[in-house]
Fold this sequence. Notes:
By secondary structure, this protein is mainly α. The protein has one domain (about 1-105). The protein has helices at about 1-10, 20-45, 55-65, 65-80, 90-105.
Amino acid sequence: MKEFLTVLRRWNDFDGRSARREYWMYTLVLIIIFLVLGILDGIILGEAALSQFLTFGNVFSLATLVPSISVSVRRLHDIEKSGWWFCLAFTVIGILVLFYWACVASDEGENRYGSP
Length: 116
């Protein structure tokens, strides 16, 4: 939970680095919250949740969009890749490459994006 809050505090910070643990703990908490909100949407709105735009899950998704992109860019910096590589997320094969890079161990020591 600490990593999740750290990412939310650094929501507009696209500089620096984020370690693998910070990235994956943020992602895990995000998935759990999405599941809970999806269940709440189903309970409260029923089948109408599928056709509504302003559901709990959609609002939360929009609220965490920029922090999710920023932590992904910082994770790429952590393995000494440019944040522009995140644009691969718009392709099917690119998602697999980004997933692999998210699993790669951090660069030890300082790199051009800062210290770990």
